[in-house]
Amino acid sequence: GLPAIEVTSFVSSKWVPQMADHKEVMRGIERHPGVQYPVLTPNLQGFHSAIAAGATEVSVFGAASESFSKMNINCSIEESIERFEEVIKSARNMNIPVRGYVSCALGCPYEGNVVPDKVAEVSKRLYSMGCYEISLGDTIGVGTPGSMKKMLEAVMKEIPLSALAVHCHDTYGQALANILTAIQMGVAVVDSSVAGLGGCPYAKGATGNVATEDVIYMLNGLGINTGVNLCAVMEAGNFICTALNKKTNSKVAQASFRTGTTN
């Protein structure tokens, strides 16, 4: 029941060898009607490779921190915007929707605090260039409901609330609280990761994105109809954790497997 599933990333395998199989992954997925399958594309070369592999939606990923931008995509914020402009222009000519990410929206592993106005500035530029949605990422999971509120207030002055999403890593155990804050402020799109898997090679110590299972459980408790089958998501999480020989990071999955329930 998930409406969008990010498939892979068309980054250089030299920089991120884990993503070297992106073409094989694109060939192997089973597509369902009404579901979006976006892929990450850092530059024009990645965009063309993604389209050749069958991508119908792409995402560009910038940062609100100069240091992180240089470490993550090997260029300054300004240079990254110029690269994204090329991608977005090419995508527009092919009627390919583009989503934009802003990393380090609540803190940077190299610079520490990131001012909300910087997040708002980068978000505004991506939106004005043609990104239909801007996902604000707490890449290292240091945000709190207080800092989330201040950051969103700044960004909401520049772009419509309907074009915002949040992407919260759970390094400090604040992800669900931060997501709840965003939802209470009107944000309707939340990024998550099955079993809470993932991380970032350029953010030492950062854990994965918030577990999809935990977000769904919370939303169900709020009476929000997501249309997502929690049991099926937990089964998917169990499958991938078994394949990777990893333990799930989802508290809901851990408790459910212990007790044999999902309530």
Give the topology, please.
Layout: H1 22-28, E1 39-40, H2 44-52, E2 58-63, H3 66-73, H4 77-93, E3 98-103, H5 116-129, E4 133-138, H6 145-156, E5 164-168, H7 175-184, E6 189-191, H8 212-221, H9 230-244, H10 251-259
Parallel strand pairs: 1-2, 2-3, 3-4, 4-5, 5-6
Helix pairs in contact: 4-5, 5-6, 6-7, 8-9
Catalytic activity: (3S)-3-hydroxy-3-methylglutaryl-CoA = acetoacetate + acetyl-CoA
EC number: 4.1.3.4
Pathway: Metabolic intermediate metabolism; (S)-3-hydroxy-3-methylglutaryl-CoA degradation; acetoacetate from (S)-3-hydroxy-3-methylglutaryl-CoA: step 1/1
Structural write-up:
There is one protein chain. The protein is α/β, with parallel strands linked by helices and 263 residues long. It has one domain (8-257): TIM Barrel, CATH 3.20.20. Helix content is 42%, strand content 11%. The protein contains ten helices and six strands, in the order αβαβααβαβαβαβααα. The protein has a six-stranded parallel beta sheet with strand order 1-2-3-4-5-6. β4 (133-138), α6 and β5 form a beta-alpha-beta unit. α4 runs parallel beside α5 and α5 (116-129) packs across α6. The longest helix has 17 residues, at 77-93. It is globular and about 50 Å long. The model has no long low-confidence stretch (mean pLDDT 92).
